[in-house]
Write a structure and sequence with these properties.
The protein is an alpha/beta fold. The protein contains nine helices and eleven strands.
């Protein structure tokens, strides 16, 4: 396995020899080791069925490992109670593949929702002010704030979803297959949005799980490729182009065709 040497930069996420089985027989994660540096943009890539989604759900604390250890922002997820874990998840902002907006809420109401849920100390006007600020940060025109998701374009839905993910000022932003199924123009818009959001928030860690090799190479500082429940290669895009690992060479040559 080719893995870059670790640096002294603080880690946002550490997965140490993580194994996961759901049935006690077949392992989805087979000793996964991954160190995601704080303040970086890291892309987790790989063919379908290699464990990307399961890896992501472990980082979010939605799954517990069968064995191994996971530390997020210096905290051991296994040591947390259910209530502590629920509160800790406020440190995450997630942009889902489909944006996952509430259909019966306006754009502004969608962004207000996590603030009403988790910031009971704020009054209505304060919540609205924060929500509008987040929507401005993702460059959504105020004329769309009162519209329902069905009344805005796919690109605007992505912007709204990202604004909602930013509502609680999380330390870690997670993008789950953010460009799957999008046309090339919209894909580039989402990629640019990820980069501009990251630059606007120094110290924030961005993690993107994707099949899209070109997007990963275009925007990520570090790329981690999974295969058969393990990390096959971690490095810069240049490391992937130079790699002699046969599966890496095949993945790079095929790009997003898999």
């Amino acid at each position: 396995m080719e893995v870059q040497a670790s640096t002294t930069i603080e880690s946002a996420v550490k997965m140490i020899d993580v194994k996961k089985t759901f049935d006690g027989k077949e392992y989805v994660l087979k000793g996964l080791n991954l160190d995601i540096k704080k303040g970086s943009i890291t892309a987790i890539i790989g063919f379908s069925g290699t464990g990307k989604s399961v890896c992501l759900k472990h980082i979010l604390g939605l799954y517990k490992p069968t064995s191994g250890k996971i530390e997020v922002l210096g905290r051991d997820l296994e040591s947390m109670s259910k209530d502590e874990l629920t509160k800790f998840r406020q440190e995450f902002g997630v942009l889902f593949q489909s944006a996952a907006l509430f259909d019966d809420m306006t754009v502004l109401e969608n962004v207000c929702f996590p603030l009403f849920e988790h910031r009971r100390d704020l009054n209505f006007e304060e919540v609205e002010k924060i929500a509008k600020e987040k929507l401005h940060n993702v460059d959504l025109d105020p004329k769309h704030f009162g519209k329902l998701p069905s009344q805005i374009s796919g690109g605007m839905q992505k912007r709204t979803g990202l604004a909602r993910a930013l509502a609680l000022d999380p330390e870690i932003l997670i993008y789950d297959e953010p460009t799957t199924g999008l046309d090339p123009i919209l894909t580039e818009m989402v990629d640019d949005l990820i980069v501009s959001t990251h630059k606007r928030r120094p110290g924030t860690t961005s993690i993107m799980v994707s099949h899209d090799l070109y997007a990963a190479f275009r925007i990520a500082d570090t790329v981690a490729m999974l295969d058969a429940g393990k990390v096959l290669l971690v490095g810069t895009p240049e490391d992937f182009y130079k790699s002699e690992i046969e599966l890496v060479k095949r993945f790079v040559s095929k790009g997003i065709k898999h």
